[in-house]
């Protein structure tokens, strides 16, 4: 079904990923299921094609592309029909490296993000523990300061990529003298003395390696802290939104695979001298499910769009994840049923999909936790704010500095055929007049107003700073009249071509 969120470049990217999956994944994926492991060569191949850094900064080897390239990538990987593979890839790219990419120091990014994007090193994200999963605040793995190192002790449970990871982004309780313990994120090298990992036996996701990790007084340099110390809990809570979106997109891709393989089977199998596709009970159930898949797909795309605009769409991410993964269980159940006895045989793909799907409503926050979050935001009016913005930084940014940073935030790939000039008239303290011109794939900023502007934006300087730093949603500012825009399509196009300040 057509969608407004994808342009021709997304489509051609989709073709590339599909070709890759057909050539490099499908012929070997059964073997990876048997081996219970994805070979290092696949990571390198993914890295070489730029698939492991789709949204990561260009300065570290990523593409800084819009989020819909990730949607395309994740959907196509999931459509291969091996959820273990999807889990391993998505954990590496969207979970293990997400915090590092957003708030890690330059040195840490050089050391871990660059090789992760290149496919030379594999990452894992370790939050869950043997005694706590949903209740993240209750983790007990400790990091005690000793000179310029932390000494880490404890264990982590159910960790995807656990035995094969080169580094593990680990949630720890940091103990600093004179301060109450807080949660921080620490990168731990899997070669460190005292670190060990052993593989767990699962009912599905066989190609992904899931492990219990043990930390026996592992010494980790203080410089391996990601972002600010004791801010890990907020980072984790916020990045759950990305994790849940990724989970929803993958569940949708997995449902596409289940439907495709089942329709193929139904077209070839006959009963009572008719193809299965001719039986009304089956065909109606299939189209009911396909309609539901399409509904959650479009809702998930909308949520991805909100996310790409720099919002923290907690309610929508939770709804998308909950609905998509629960629907996936219904879909694989029906699809297996329509295969009859063959559906229960390991040699049929639907048997694997049936086993694999079951993890969806548990990982990355269970359905029960999703319902709790949705109830909090919808019934109790709880609001969530972004944790990544250093609040102390925000007031010191002036509109002039924001405009000066535009060329670093420019998404060049979005501006190929764009010719657009915008005038900004900012009133109040720190205000002024600025012109931004996007032409021939470049972005130019100058002081003063242009005679040839396609659009004029008028607002208070402080409102502009709030929007650009993610403190205020642009849509609410337009709707409440705090920003006047002479041509909304031009403004929307403009908004798509720049990353938010500080992201
Ligand atoms: C295959 C697999 C891969 C995984 N990969 C990773 C990984 O890479 N990194 C990582 O950190 N973790 C990983 N996990 C762990 C996963 O995130 C947790 O299993 C999940 O968050 C649930 O935690 P738990 O298993 O401790 O269940 P518990 O928190 O003990 O929950 C048990 C049951 O109680 C319910 N429950 C708990 N609290 C509430 C509540 N407040 N209200 C209502 N019901 C509640 C739950 O929904 C669940 O049904 C993975 C798990 C699996 C199975």
Assign the CATH topology of the largest domain.
Butyryl-CoA Dehydrogenase, subunit A, domain 3
Structural domains: how many: 4
Total count of helical runs of at least 4 residues = 16
- Associated small molecules: flavin-adenine dinucleotide
**Number of strand segments:** 15
Uncertain ranges: 390-394
CATH architecture of the largest domain: Up-down Bundle
Structure description:
With 503 residues, this protein is of the alpha+beta class. It has four domains: 8-122, Butyryl-Coa Dehydrogenase, subunit A, domain 1; 124-230, Butyryl-CoA Dehydrogenase, subunit A, domain 2 (Beta Barrel), CATH 2.40.110.10; 234-378, Up-down Bundle (Butyryl-CoA Dehydrogenase, subunit A, domain 3); 394-496, Nonspecific Lipid-transfer Protein, Chain A, CATH 3.30.1050.10. Helices cover 45% and strands 18% of the residues. The chain contains 16 helices and 15 strands. The protein has helices at residues 8-35, 40-48, 67-79, 83-96, 98-103, 106-118, 232-268, 280-308, 314-338, 349-357, 367-378, 399-404, 406-409, 461-468, 474-479, 488-496, and strands at residues 123-126, 142-146, 149-160, 167-175, 182-189, 195-199, 210-221, 225-226, 270-271, 274-275, 420-427, 432-439, 442-447, 455-460, 483-485. Strands 1, 2, 3, 4, 5, 6, 7 and 8 form an eight-stranded mixed β-sheet that branches. A hairpin with a 2-residue loop joins strand 9 and strand 10. Helix 1 packs across helix 3 (67-79) and helix 4 packs antiparallel against helix 7 (232-268). The chain is globular and about 75 Å long. The two termini are 32 Å apart. The structure holds flavin-adenine dinucleotide (FAD). Flavin-adenine dinucleotide binds next to strand 1, strand 3 and helix 11. The site of flavin-adenine dinucleotide has 22 residues, from strand 1, strand 3 and helix 11.
């Amino acid at each position: 079904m057509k969608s407004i969120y994808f342009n021709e470049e997304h489509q051609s990217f989709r073709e590339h990923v599909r070709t890759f999956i057909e050539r490099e994944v499908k012929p070997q994926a059964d073997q990876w299921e048997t081996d219970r492991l994805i070979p290092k060569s696949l990571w390198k191949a993914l890295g070489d094609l730029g698939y492991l850094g789709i949204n990561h900064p260009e300065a570290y080897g990523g593409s800084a592309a819009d989020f819909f390239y990730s949607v395309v990538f994740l959907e196509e990987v999931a459509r291969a029909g091996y959820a273990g593979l999807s889990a391993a890839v998505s954990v590496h790219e969207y979970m293990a490296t997400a915090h590092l990419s957003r708030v890690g120091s330059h040195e840490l990014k050089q050391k871990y993000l660059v090789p992760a994007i290149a496919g030379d090193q594999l990452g894992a994200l370790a939050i869950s523990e043997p005694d706590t999963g949903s209740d993240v605040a209750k983790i007990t793995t400790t990091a005690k300061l000793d000179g310029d190192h932390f000494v880490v002790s404890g264990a982590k449970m159910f960790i995807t990529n656990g035995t094969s990871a080169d580094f593990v982004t680990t949630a720890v309780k940091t103990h600093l003298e004179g301060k109450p313990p807080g949660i921080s994120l620490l990168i731990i090298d899997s070669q460190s003395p005292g670190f060990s990992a052993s593989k767990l036996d699962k009912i599905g996701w066989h190609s992904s390696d899931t492990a219990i990790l043990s930390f026996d007084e592992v010494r980790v340099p203080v410089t391996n802290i990601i972002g600010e110390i004791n801010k890990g809990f907020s980072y984790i809570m916020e990045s759950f939104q990305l994790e849940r979106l990724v989970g929803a997109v993958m569940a949708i891709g997995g449902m596409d695979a289940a439907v495709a393989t089942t329709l193929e089977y139904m077209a070839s199998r006959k009963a009572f001298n008719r193809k299965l596709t001719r039986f009304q009970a089956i065909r109606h159930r299939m189209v009911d499910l396909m309609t539901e898949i399409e509904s959650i797909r479009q809702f998930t795309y909308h949520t991805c769009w909100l996310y790409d605009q720099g919002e923290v769409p907690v309610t929508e991410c939770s709804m998308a994840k909950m609905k998509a993964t629960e629907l996936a269980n219904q879909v694989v159940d029906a699809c297996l049923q329509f295969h009859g006895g063959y559906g229960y045989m390991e040699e049929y793909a639907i048997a694997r999909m049936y086993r694999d799907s079951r993890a969806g409503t548990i990982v990355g926050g269970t359905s029960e936790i999703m319902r709790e979050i949705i109830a909090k935001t919808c019934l109790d009016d709880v609001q969530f704010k972004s944790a990544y913005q250093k609040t102390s930084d925000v007031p010191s940014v002036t509109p002039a500095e924001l405009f000066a940073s535009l060329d670093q935030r420019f998404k060049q790939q979005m501006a190929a055929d764009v010719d657009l000039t915008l005038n900004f008239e900012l009133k109040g303290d720190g205000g002024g007049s600025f012109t931004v011109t996007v032409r021939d794939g470049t972005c130019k900023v100058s002081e003063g107003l242009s005679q040839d502007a396609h659009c004029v934006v008028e607002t208070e300087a402080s409102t502009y700073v709030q929007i650009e730093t993610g403190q205020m949603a642009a849509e609410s500012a337009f709707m409440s009249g705090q920003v006047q825009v002479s041509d909304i399509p031009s403004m929307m196009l403009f908004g798509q071509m720049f990353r938010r300040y500080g992201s």
